[in-house]
Amino acid sequence: MLNKFFLKMKAIAFVGIVFVVFLALANDVYAASQLNKVNYSKDTIYQIVTDRFLDGDPSNNPDGALYSETDLHKYMGGDWKGITEKIEDHYFTDLGITALWISQPVENVYAVHPEGYTSYHGYWARDYKKTNPFYGSFNDFDELISTAHSHGIKIIMDFTPNHSSPALKTDSDYVENGAIYDNGSLIGNYSNDMDLFHHNGGTDFSSYEDGIYRNLYDLADYDLQNQTIDQYLKESIELWLDKGIDGIRVDAVKHMSQGWQETLTNHIYSYQPVFTFGEWFLGENEIDPRNHYFANESGMSLLDFQFGQQIRGVLMSKEDDWTDFHTMIEDTSNSYNEVIDQVTFIDNHDMSRFHKEDRAKTNTDIALAVLLTSRGVPTIYYGTEHYLTGESDPENRKPMPSFDRTTTAYQIISNLAHLRQSNPALGYGTTTERWLNEDVYIFERKFGDNVVVTAVNSGEQSYTINNLQTSLLEGTHPDVLEGLMGGDALQIDEKGQASTFELKANEVAVWEVTAESNAPLIGHVGPMVGQAGNEITISGEGFGEGQGTVLFGSDQASIVSWGDSEIVVNVPDIPGNHYNIEVVTNGNKESNPYSDFEILTNKLIPVRFIVEEAVTDYGTSVYLVGNTQELGNWDTDKAIGPFFNQIIAQYPTWYYDISVPADYTLEYKFIKKDALGNVVWESGTNRSYDTPTDGTDTLTSTWRN
Ligand code: NOJ
Ligand code: NOJ
Ligand code: CA
Ligand code: CA
Predict the structure, then answer these.
(1) Staple partner for 581: which of 118, 293, 370, 594, CB 3.0–4.6 Å?
(2) Which residues contact 622 (CB under 8 A, 6 or more apart)?
(3) pLDDT at 31 over 80
């Protein structure tokens, strides 16, 4: 009897252990198959100011002048333990969040700025190889990463390679004099080490060049061509990649040369590829072709300020309407090669919060619904789910007010973020306008046979919608928002036409069809640039379970792994150029070509080209063109430039920091090009340059008439 009882207990314990092991495995499998570090199309990012989210460990809080419970310029105690706690509590997974963007994790200055400011925001780095102790230790960081990963959540770190911290050339006691350390040992500071930093005063933002080579406010600006700085920053990002981060948000990309940043992305993608996106701030109605060029050529995506400012124009200032918004959607689908990789938002820590106390919550709800169903990777700024308000910084960075999960905003985000995971039309699809006026926007997203239709009325009157044509299938489609914003089911007839319905003021409805495809369809490739051997992930549908082939142009790539919706390959060793990628299933079905993957000639290093005595007419500039695709392949439309001539060197000397293939014999020439594209070539034979295998370089030449 007793024996039997023990046997039974043993059996129960055994089953229990098996079950626990199974759960653990299932969890891992889930996490592993979910965590695609280079494709965020199905993700919804949640942006956290780490210090303001949750104090999970009061013992790591600073004391004295650095800390306050009320002064928003001081540290307030939030840390990685707090974030970890909320992951374990399923706060994010219930909200549909699959990626957290956290403050830069590195050690920051301890000094208090004379104006009473502190580095609670993480943008004043001091030692990139240490943690900010007020956020936690490396152990706490490891725990954050492993907890996040086991819940299918990616961690994106903020990163500031443009500058260290506030400094003044004339006062070495100012804050910490911009000093930076390499795991505790001093590298240099702003007034002692002239080579590490620029000493060209603060920028007045008057030109691209001015913003790059002068200080942003009083922040000690790195000379990224300096070998020590270049190496230190690249080593530092390796350290955090080794820690398991899944994405990088690069601060102030408009304030660093594109050439150096191309070497940074190349470094990241060769070491451990993760989704990398930059902050290129644009004001209201600002459209900047350089911003598009950067997003298309640097290897990095950008925060989508055009999207963000436009939706604020429609719903916050009300100076614009949905017709302007749709124009932005169409324009950006042309100006960005990878519009689905741009990171969209309605607000962030550098602008007023979207919600205002005197505004109806429905206004914010509408913005969230459009954000989450539009193209791009949506980002929710922490607290938006609680209608947190705040004008300029630091009012827009108040502590998280609550962790309640019942607000309408929380439920809208949750419904639509989950829809992004299940219906690939949102991540990969095209956008078509189906009904539009100043108050109403009905738009369709479509990928293969997957369809999502969003209908919004932000006006004050109800509209009768008749003759609405969609790609939804015949039948009744329930509102994905379950009536949260007044929506109803939609009836579609056999011709794809919707029955007439009323779209009331402030109503939003979302309808969808998810359909499996049996033909191969590429939705996303990440990253879109790489050197031979780099790992590239191709996402989509219908690739089949059996291994087929992947072509770059007409060359086959070696396959690392093959699945029906995800293939990992190595970039083939073929000449640097732009190639279309195609998937061919083992049943010989060919996918759509995914255009313009850039194969690099070799690893990239940053070189400063200086050319003296290049006299030009007003409106004409110096460029460089050469024999690799990085240098335009002798096509003067793709020449690199326009060169600068104001700060590092002055007219008629010109300079530009360019990423070039390492360990390679470059042939090139300088050209003069005017605004109409008329070109004057240097005389003589091509210049030749054997590039170094590593580090940085400077080449000084004289223009040849
Ligand atoms: C942009 C960041 O988002 C902002 O908050 C910061 O102060 C500056 N860059 C400088 O790092
Ligand atoms: C600038 C070139 O214009 C572009 O084609 C290339 O993507 C990058 N350099 C990186 O090589
Ligand atoms: Ca704390
Ligand atoms: Ca700079």
Answers:
(1) 594
(2) 611, 614, 616, 641, 642, 643, 645, 654, 670, 671, 672, 703
(3) no
Contacts of 278 (CB under 8 A, 6+ apart): 249, 250, 251, 253, 261, 294, 298, 300, 301, 302, 303
Give the residue-averaged pLDDT of 546-571. Answer: 97
User: Does 279 sit in the ligand 1 pocket, CB within 6 Å?
Assistant: yes
Question: Rounded to the nearest 10 degrees, how much is the dihedral formed by the CA atoms of 146, 147, 152, 154?
Answer: -60
**From atom 10 of ligand 2, which residue's Cα is the shortest distance away?**
630
Separation of alpha carbons 486 and 408, rounded Å: 12
Residue 417 corresponds to which tokens in the numbers above?
């973020």
Element (H, E) at 413: helix 408-422
Q: Which atom of ligand 2 is nearest to the CA of 631?
A: 2
Q: Quote helix, strand, coil % in the chain, to nearest 5.
A: 25, 30, 45
Pocket test for ligand 2, best of 258, 265, 292, 297 (most atoms within 8 A of CB): 297
* Pocket, ligand 2, Cβ cutoff 6 A: 262, 297, 598, 630, 638, 640, 659
DSSP for residue 75: B
User: Nearest C-alpha to atom 11 of ligand 2 is from which residue?
Assistant: 630
Report which bound ligand comes closest to the CA of 224. 4
Determine how β-strand 343-345 pairs with β-strand 377-381: parallel
- 218-274 pLDDT, tens digit each: 999 999 999 999 999 999 999 999 999 999 999 999 999 999 999 999 999 999 999
**Best mutation site among 121, 282, 348 for ligand 1 pocket (most ligand atoms within 8 Å of CB):** 121
pLDDT digits (tens, 9 = 90+) for 185-208: 999 999 988 799 999 999 999 999
Output the six-digit token pair for 47. Answer: 């942006």
In sequence order, the 6+-apart residues with CB closer than 8 A to the CB of 262 are 297, 298, 299, 604, 659
